[in-house]
Write a structure and sequence with these properties.
binds calcium ion; alpha/beta; nine-stranded mixed β-sheet; binds beta-D-ribofuranose
C-alpha cells in the first residue's frame, strides 16, 4: 500500500475522504494532521479524533495551525455546521490518539523516518503543508507527491475566483505550488461534478456503520437539501490516487494570486502556456460523474 498523510479540516466531505482512505487496501494512512478551515482547529482536531475512534483505527492525529499564515480565518461553518460535523452522535473520542507533536513536527518525523516516500493528501487549507516545506525543506526528498483538493481552473466557491482551501490561505498555497514537489490538483473542475444524490444517500445506512454515519452527516450538509447533488470535493483527492482513470488530467503550470484586488486566492491554471513556465502540477480538469458515483458507493460499502 501507498503510505500517506492526510491533512484535513473535517468537515463533512473530509470525513468521507478519510473513511475511503482508511478502509482502502491500497493506502496506508500513517498520520492525520488537522488544520483550521471549515471550522476552527479545536473542532477539526476533535472531529479527526472522533473519526479515528469511530473507525477503530489507531492512526495518530496531530494538531496543526490554528490560523492561516497571514490572514484571519474565514471558516465555512455556515456549510458544515457549527462543529463541522453535525448530524451524528459520535462516541467519546480516544484522546490517546492525539500526538504529542504538532502537525508539522509529526509530519517531519514520519517523512524522514520512512523507508518509502510518503504521499501527502491535503484536503483543507495548505497552512500546515507550507509550514512543513518551509521549516524542514529536507522532507521534500522523501515526499512522493502532494495530491490535494483545492483550486480551480475556472471560478471559485469561496469568492468569485477563489476555491475555499486556497482562498482561506493563499500565501500557504503559493508556497506549496512553488516548492518543487510533484502536485496533483483536484479542484472545483472535478469537485463540482463529483456528485452524490439523495437516491445514493438512501442506500448508505444498509452499508453498515460508516454508511450510517455519512448518511446522517449528509442530512445536515448544506442544510440537508441536495436534489441537485452533494459535492464530494475532498473524496476527489483520494479518488485521484485510487481511481485515476475516472479523471482527465492536464500537466500545467499553476500559480496562486495573493495580492489581486479582486482575485486573491485564485489559482492561475495556465492551460494555454501564456506564462511560459514549466509545469508544476497535474490538474484534474474533468471527471466521469457517473463512474465517480459508483466508485463512491462501492468504496463506502467497503468501509466496514
Ligand atoms: C473544500 O472546502 C471545504 O469546505 C471542503 O471540505 C473542501 O475541502 C471545497 O472547496
Ligand atoms: Ca476539507
Amino acid at each position: 500500500p501507498i503510505p500517506v498523510i492526510i491533512d484535513t479540516d473535517p468537515g463533512i466531505d473530509d470525513a468521507v475522504a478519510i473513511a475511503l482512505a482508511l478502509f482502502s487496501e491500497e493506502l496506508d494512512v500513517k498520520l492525520i494532521t488537522t488544520v483550521a478551515g471549515n471550522v476552527g482547529i479545536d473542532y477539526t482536531t476533535l472531529n479527526a479524533l472522533r473519526l479515528v475512534t469511530y473507525f477503530r483505527v489507531d492512526v495518530p492525529v496531530a494538531r496543526g495551525a490554528s490560523e492561516p499564515l497571514l490572514r484571519p480565518l474565514e471558516d465555512a461553518s455556515a456549510i458544515h455546521g457549527k462543529t463541522g460535523m453535525e448530524g451524528f452522535e459520535f462516541p467519546e473520542p480516544n484522546e490517546s490518539l492525539l500526538s504529542s507533536l504538532n502537525a508539522v513536527d509529526a509530519m517531519r518525523k514520519l517523512i524522514l523516518d520512512s523507508e518509502e516516500k510518503i504521499t501527502l493528501i491535503p484536503i483543507g487549507p495548505l497552512t500546515n503543508i507550507a509550514l512543513l516545506l518551509k521549516t524542514y525543506p529536507e522532507v521534500k526528498a522523501n515526499i512522493d507527491r502532494i495530491v490535494m483538493m483545492g483550486g480551480s481552473a475556472s471560478r471559485g466557491n469561496k469568492g468569485v475566483m477563489s476555491e475555499f482551501n486556497i482562498g482561506v490561505d493563499p500565501e500557504a498555497a503559493k508556497i506549496v505550488f512553488h516548492a518543487g514537489v510533484p502536485i496533483v490538483m483536484a479542484g472545483l473542475d472535478v469537485g463540482l461534478k463529483a456528485l452524490v444524490y439523495p437516491e445514493d444517500s438512501v442506500q448508505l445506512p444498509a452499508m453498515g456503520k460508516t454508511g450510517t454515519m455519512i448518511h446522517d452527516l449528509f442530512k445536515r450538509y448544506r442544510g440537508g437539501s441536495f436534489n441537485t447533488g452533494l459535492k464530494m470535493y475532498d473524496p476527489c483527492a483520494v479518488a485521484c490516487l485510487l481511481a485515476p482513470e475516472l479523471f482527465t488530467f492536464a500537466d500545467t503550470y499553476v500559480d496562486v494570486e495573493v495580492c489581486g484586488e479582486l482575485t486573491s486566492g485564485c489559482t492561475v491554471v495556465d492551460l494555454k502556456g501564456y506564462l511560459h513556465q514549466d509545469s508544476n502540477a497535474s490538474v484534474a480538469i474533468d471527471v466521469d460523474g457517473e463512474a465517480f458515483r459508483k466508485w463512491f458507493l462501492d468504496g463506502i460499502r467497503r468501509c466496514v
